[in-house]
Specification:
Layout lengths: L2 H7 L1 H15 L5 H34 L2 H15 L7 H6 L4 H15 L4 H12 L3 H11 L8 H23 L1
Helix pairs in contact: 3-8, 6-7, 7-9
């Protein structure tokens, strides 16, 4: 283990020691605060579970119904027009919904086309430069109990589209 890894490994224990020393010096009982924090964390977790269950159900139905394949077929010519490899279109559809689903799809794309192919590199850059928008909104807005997302979803989806197009351009430009 190198020095940097050792330093990062020591951060959490060092924070606990610092917290305990601060509590001892100020003569405070930190156990109630830790208990309250754990209770609040569980409350937040319970609050976001329905959103996650709904999101995962929608993703499964989207893929199982054949809608993803149908929409992929429609979007492939437009993607090709702006320079995005058609093989990356399914990744563009899944990425805003699910990070783990997109990672699995990206892994499959790279396995089939190769890590050094334009398609593989484009997929890798897309995974790194875009966000699982609906998952993030479900978790964070759900945790904050925000019901009206207003412009958050359209703005995030536009950012994803820009990220996808830029990823394709960067892959062609740099590789």
């Amino acid at each position: 283990m190198n020095t940097i890894q050792l330093g990062f490994s020591a951060i959490v224990p060092a924070l606990f020691v610092l917290l305990a020393l601060t509590a001892i010096l100020k003569k405070k009982d930190i156990f109630p605060a830790i208990k309250e924090g754990a209770k609040e964390g569980l409350t937040v977790t319970i609050g976001i579970v329905p959103s996650l269950v709904a999101l995962f159900s929608v993703i499964y139905m989207f893929r199982a119904s054949g809608a993803m394949d149908y929409i992929t077929g429609i979007l492939e010519p437009a993607a090709k027009l702006v320079g995005i490899p058609p093989e990356c279109v399914p990744l563009m559809l899944i990425r805003p919904l699910s990070g783990s689903g997109a990672l699995a799809l990206g892994t499959d794309i790279i396995r089939v086309h190769g890590v050094n192919s334009l398609i593989g590199r484009t997929a890798a850059i897309m995974l790194g430069s875009t966000e699982s928008t609906f998952y993030v909104i479900a978790v964070y807005f759900g945790a904050a109990d925000i019901k009206k997302t207003r412009h958050a979803i359209p703005a995030a989806l536009v950012a994803d589209i820009v990220g996808f197009c830029t990823a394709a351009a960067a892959a062609k430009l740099f590789y």
